[in-house]
Amino acid sequence: MNISFPQLFPITRKLHPENQEAPVHFLQNRVTPTDYFFKRNHFAYPQWTTSLFSLIIYGEVHVPLAVAYRQLLFMQVKTLAVVLECAGNQRAFYAPKTYGEQWTNGAVSFGCWTGVPLRDVLQLCGLTAGAKEVVFEGHDVGKHLPSGKQTAYKRSLSLKQALHPDVLIAWQLNGQPLPFAHGGPLRLIVPHWYAMASVKWLKSIAIISGEFQGPFQTEDYVYYPATDSGQQPFPVTTINVNSVIQWPLDFAELKKGVHIIRGIAWTGQGVVTNVELSFNQGKSWTSATLSGFADKPDGYSWKTWSFSWRAEQTGEYTILSRAHDSHGRQQPQEAFWNRKGYGYNAVNKVRVNIV
After folding, report:
1. Is the backbone of residue 127 left (phi > 0), alpha (psi -120 to 50) or beta?
2. Alpha-carbon distance 110 to 301, whole Å?
3. CB contact set of 14 (below 8 Å; sequence gap of 6+)
4. Which pTM does this prediction carry?
5. Taking Cα atoms as reference points, which of 179, 146, 187 lies closest to residue 339?
6. Domains of the chain with CATH codes
7. pLDDT tens-digit map of 112-143
8. What would the pLDDT profile of 3-29 be if each residue is shown by its tens digit?
């Protein structure tokens, strides 16, 4: 007898521009299937033109270049398994609430990206002594809010960051040509950084001698602490250590007995080294079993984890998860509140009723 299962769909948060969460609680693949990969757009999709297949490089270089898509395919290719997470992922959990897309747990995905190291392309141009930052411009254009100014999406990296050997100009996702909806034909991939740095629909790369001051660099993607904290604003960069309990779901009813709790964990510094669970509001913790990709010290994949829980007593339970990484960071009990709701990474929790 053939058994059919309901088809999964991404969770739409907004249609214009299109923003969708991955159905992260129902995905058991270590790599997120492309159809379920989260989407974060600031503007409408750019118009499809042949100019999408070329990349202009100019500024503080000895030889400005127009690099064609086909030329990149013949350069040294690299494939990396990289987590991308929207800086606003889990914003819906902040208290008090913050403005912005009310993402829950699904503005994060894990894919295998193939492309050419950015530094190999920049070496073709020859950088001048004045080169300080590298500015990436996408083909997507629209009004930046709240300023209302018409602008393209642009972000920069310092020269040192841009020359890291694992920063890629990617044209494949999970072994297939990079879909247009995910920034194809060419997008930047910056491992360990929140995904705002991985500029989609790459149009141009400008090497500049100063500091880039675009709105997506100096206004958005900045941590603005509470006004009474005494802290100064600072830029959003690397991903905070984080975890999600995929199963059981929040407010699930379960029967007494043994249940396999499972989830994922990731970080923007080093690798995940441990995931702990608590069943008594954080008074004590016990380690889960990690699996997933065998990471090198600077690996960029997430870890899957599981724990066999024997629920012997009926009643309500809160299950907490917290991840640790190789840089000594762990998920805090409470996330760092900031006015734009970036970088949420408080311990993850689900509430269950044992019947």
Report:
1. beta
2. 7
3. 101
4. 0.96
5. 146
6. 11-220 (3.90.420.10), 242-354 (2.60.40.650)
7. 999 999 999 999 999 999 999 999 999 999 99
8. 444 678 889 999 999 999 999 999 988
